[in-house]
Amino acid sequence: MAINCKDNVITMETRNSTYQMKVEKGFLIHTYYGEKVGDMDMSYLSRTIDRGFSGIPEGVKGRDFSLDTQLLEYPSYGTGDFRNDCLRVEYADGSQVTDLKFVSCQVKDGKYALEGLPAMYQGDKKAETLEITLKDEFKNLEVVLYYGVFEELDIITRACRVINKGQEKVSLLRVYSMCVDFYDRDMDLIHFYGRHAMERVTERTPLHHGMQSVGSRRGYSSHQYNPMVILCKHNATEDAGICYGASFVYSGNFAAEAEVAQANNTRLTMGIHDAQFKFVLNPGEDFTAPEVLLSFSRQGLGQLSRNYHKAIRENICRGKYKNARRPILINNWEATYFDFNTDKLLDIAREAKKLGIEMLVMDDGWFGKRDDDNSGLGDWFVNEKKLPGGLKKLVDGVNDIGLKFGIWFEPEMVSEDSELFRAHPDWALTVPGRSFTRGRNQLVLDFSRQEVRDYIFDRMSEILESANIEYVKWDANRHLTDVWSAALPAEKQGEVFHRYILGLYDFLEKITQKFPDVLFEGCSGGGGRFDAGMMYYHPQIWCSDDTDAVERLVIQYGTSFGYPVSTVGSHVSVCPNHQTGRSVSMKTRGVVAMAGTFGYELDITKMSQEDKEEVKVQIEDFKKYYELIQRGDYYRLTDDGKTSNLVAWQFTSEDKKEALVNGVVLKTRANPVFITVYLKGLNPDSVYEIEGQSGRFTGAALMNGGYPIPVMPDDYQAVQLYVKEC
């Protein structure tokens, strides 16, 4: 049993961690989360003291037990815990005090599911569920805490449901999904910030007194902050030290907050951001908060990442392409932008076929009146001026060449200059009578409304059924402003942000189930919705609109902390690069793109013969190393270039018999210092060969002595070492 409830002590165990709570004076107290300690009652670590200005709960004798000083499992607002709370409720009488007491716990085989929300599923793994019920007796408000324990994966999931069992309606002002309290503050916060075309840049800062928080109020998880954070000890490195991760399985507004309180204890909370959040529950109604994936590692940040990689790859991602090899594709966007027709696309397809590319993806501009980004969104019918004879003629032509075919959609958006907006202006998120904010000259459709979703679903289905389409790139190119729904009364406008995401998930579930053989790739201006929630529907997501290989080193490095390579959309693009103007070799662009799903984003008809030959080699190499790259253990061998002139990473097979080391030497220098790369994850006693190199090496030698990188004759030169056991 991974879960044990005995003598008011509730213990959960994974392969390498223990998570424990205890019922004390009617409250659910958090006692421990960390390295495995068995069923030892860890509440001996809890200490009490009469600390001034800390309220004492009713019925507690003495003055040394206060909710303000205890480690709590799910803190609520208004009863003496002045730290950050998880639950804030406004009742019909205007009060906001909620006093949650322990009622019961129940252990179930298998993993719980969340209605209407993505979550880890059990699959072929062993999993157990713990349900703990808390209740405010005065208002008859019940909270059910859900814990899913994946012992093998070292993952514990958290979610909760709030149920109004009273006789009056209540308004939920905050419902976070989880809280973890720690006894001390000696940790760093690692988070991943950014902007469009530079997502998930790594930042590590020591915790300090007060609140450190990241989050999104943009309607999406966003380019600016990612809903995955890490707390780790100051001395934690890639390979050693205590680390805790929290990844939110949700694609909308979020908050992740770390607070160091008066007694130097630390509280980490995560959930839906409470900005413009007010969810009304009538008697008998309930609200389910999304899931958080928790993981612990004592073997440093690298092992924590590998825990998440495996969990997301195997128990979040679903469908045909969860394990199947994905086609190597070429996307026409940076080749043509809006200026294309059938003949131009077929020319690209013919050249692509010669080089071994397997799919042509037609990007934005094939529908409605769409010659730039000022019009046409929402009008999902083929523009036959560009595609004479229609979509099927083009797709059949591409298939006859020997390539699969994919297509771009932006289903959640509408242009003001479109037939759809002229017919249904109230379907967009706008406030009546108020001028509205534009983004990319488009508005956001109100996906909280069933009729809006049904209309777009029908139009999208018609397109997908009209031809042999095997891939969809799902884009979303602006964030939510003027958030107001014509379908909801005034008191429920605080529900729109969340209902939008629920509607989006409902749409995605239906479309992916209706078209199970289609590979769906997520995109929001690149990586603006790169989160575990979207990966439940999209097994891969376009990592960034920045295709510059040097910039991608930073973006893909940060992404690797929480997400597997199999979810990272990464392509080789043209040089000079369209975003930065930088030029790097075709080899370097290929090596960097191999830290992802791999493809091309350029006009292949204009490539030199030398580059075409390099493409052939890249494609053969990627096919050869596919399983190793997509399913191997991932190791960061360096940082993202902040402290080293080499950025390197490694894929290692589970049996440790082969590995692939990829790297880029950033700058060439006069009289250069030598660079050595230190491999990881090999069997120290095994003997290995490096393809194309002389000599044999023990795993211990390659990991401890390293391997010399040759002096490079130019900037941004790539190295790739295939290592195999003899």
From TrEMBL:
InterPro entries: Aldolase_TIM, Alpga-gal_N_sf, Alpha-glycosidase_related, GH, Glyco_hydro_27/36_CS, Glyco_hydro_36, Glyco_hydro_36_C, Glyco_hydro_36_N. Keywords: Glycosidase, Hydrolase. It catalyses: Hydrolysis of terminal, non-reducing alpha-D-galactose residues in alpha-D-galactosides, including galactose oligosaccharides, galactomannans and galactolipids. Residues 647-721 form the Glycosyl hydrolase family 36 C-terminal domain. CDD domains: GH36. The keyword Hydrolase applies. Pfam families: Glyco_hydro_36C, Glyco_hydro_36N, Melibiase. The keyword Hydrolase applies. GO terms for molecular function: alpha-galactosidase activity. This is Alpha-galactosidase. It comes from Candidatus Blautia merdavium.
